[in-house]
Amino acid sequence: MTGLADLRVKIFADGADRRGILDMYRKPFIKGFTTNPTLMRRAGIADYRAFAREILADVPDRPISFEVFADDQPEMERQAREIASWGDNVYVKIPVTNTAGEPTYRLANRLACSGVKINVTAIMTLAQVRAVAEVVAGGAPCYVSVFAGRIADTGRDPVPHMAEAVEILRHSPNAELIWASPRELLNIFHAESIGCHIITVTNDILAKLDLLGKDLDEYSLDTVRQFHDDAASAGFEL
Fold first, then answer.
1. 147 vs 153: CA distance, rounded Å
2. Which CATH number fits domain 4-212: 1.10.1740.10, 3.20.20.70, 3.30.750.24, 3.40.50.11690?
3. Which of 44, 63, 123, 137 is the least buried, fewest Cβ under 10 Å from its Cβ?
4. Please, which residues have CB within 8 angstroms of residue 15's CB and are 6 or more apart in sequence?
5. How far is 145 from 141, CA to CA, in rounded Å?
6. Measured over all CA atoms, what is the biggest interatomic distance in the chain, rounded to whole angstroms?
7. pTM (predicted TM-score)
8. Run of H or E residues at 56
9. Residue of 10, 27, 31, 93 marked active site
């Protein structure tokens, strides 16, 4: 099995807990960070701007993505330009559509062509990948974030889907493909096998990295012991 040091795919930590971010920042194999309004809400963040500036002070030298939360595209653009001003390592997450389903391709084009680093997010279809690749071509560095985990939630195999997305982006050298919303540690190796550039991984999945290559007989025994110990701790009787 490929070790962490040999991976070509870049692992970005995905979350909004400051302690978790700082813990991941101390790990050299974490190459960047992403967050989103949902994760920030779950973490109890009340002041978006203050939280972002605090994290950027903690993480000054690795890419980190913050998302606009407006639904009106002119306001999205205003927010995007403010967020971009917070640091050279900032990528601005732009949803691929607004809540009415209106594509944000023209907005992505304006931002990319004016030098704003963007992360086009919530992408599901290959048609969306093609459209984004076209509008950001020749612009600032860009991430194309395909939610492979959510695709898998629909019963579809995301691996061939993501492999085709890799091929689409070969013609857009300024754009990198993100395997977003992974569901298990194995997805890191799925992303690696198809040449995906980046995978965003939450801390609960990253916590399983110690299991890489673990002997399966040993893991079986550990599992048996866990079940036995939990039954004893619960005081079960028959």
1. 10
2. 3.20.20.70
3. 44
4. 21, 24, 33, 35, 39, 43, 202, 203
5. 13
6. 71
7. 0.94
8. helix 48-58
9. 93
Angle of the 18-25 helix axis to the 48-58 helix axis, nearest 10: 20
CA distances from 229 to 225, 233, 236 (A): 6, 6, 11
Q: Which of 53-84 are b and which e, b meaning 16 or more Cβ less than 10 Å from the residue's Cβ?
A: eebbeebeeebbbbbbeeeebeebbebbeebb
Q: What is the pLDDT of residues 146-166, one digit of tens each?
A: 999 999 999 999 999 999 999
Taking all residues of the chain, what is their mean pLDDT, rounded to a whole number?
A: 96
Has 27 been annotated as catalytic?
no
Tokens 């991941």: give the residue. 24
